Amino acid sequence: MSHPYRLDALDVALLAALREHPRTGLVEIARMVGVARATATARLQRLEAAGVVTGFGPDVDVTAAGFGVQAFVTLEIAQGALDAVHRDLEAIPGVLEAHATTGSGDVVCRVAAASHEALQEILVQLNRSSSVVRSTSVVALTCLVPWRTLPLLRSGAAPGSGRSPSYR
C-alpha cells in the first residue's frame, strides 16, 4: 500500500497560488511563492505524480451554466450491486458525483438539473436502475461552503518543512 504524499508549506503555497491565480504562468507563480522556476516545476510534477494535483481544467459553476436545481440523493442498493449501480449512475448526465457511504444509505449522489421537472426525470432514471431498492432526495437551497481544499491542506502541512514561503 502506498503512503499518502505529505504536503509541506511550499507545496501548499504553490497550490494556493495556482488556485487563486489559475491563468498565471509558472514563472510568475514561482516568483509569488519566492522560489526558482525549476523548484516550482519539480514540486508541481511531484504533486501530479502523487495524484495530489488531478487537473488544470476550469472550474465550472453548474448554476451559472443553467443547472440551478441541485439535490443530494441517497440510494439504498441491492446487496452486491455496487458495480452495477456505478455503471447506471455514470450513464445519467445529471449525476455530478456519487460516493459509496456508510449509514442508512449505500450511495450518496449530487445531481444537477435545469428545472424541477428535469430533476424529477433524473430521480426517475435513478429509480429505474434494477440495483436501486429505495432513494431519498433533498433539494439543495443555498451553497453555504463551496468545494474547497486550501484550509484543509494548510492545516495538515508538515511543519517546518520546505521553504517558508511568503505567499499566503
From TrEMBL:
Domain of life: Bacteria
SUPFAM superfamilies: Dimeric alpha+beta barrel, Winged helix' DNA-binding domain
Coiled coil regions, renumbered to chain: none
Pfam family, one: AsnC_trans_reg
Alphabetical keyword list: DNA-binding, Transcription, Transcription regulation
Residue intervals of the HTH asnC-type domain: 7-68
InterPro entries in the cross-refs: AsnC-type_HTH_dom, Dimeric_a/b-barrel, Tscrpt_reg_AsnC-like, Tscrpt_reg_AsnC/Lrp_C, WH-like_DNA-bd_sf, WH_DNA-bd_sf
The protein's name in its UniProt record: Lrp/AsnC ligand binding domain-containing protein
Species in which this protein is naturally found: Blastococcus carthaginiensis
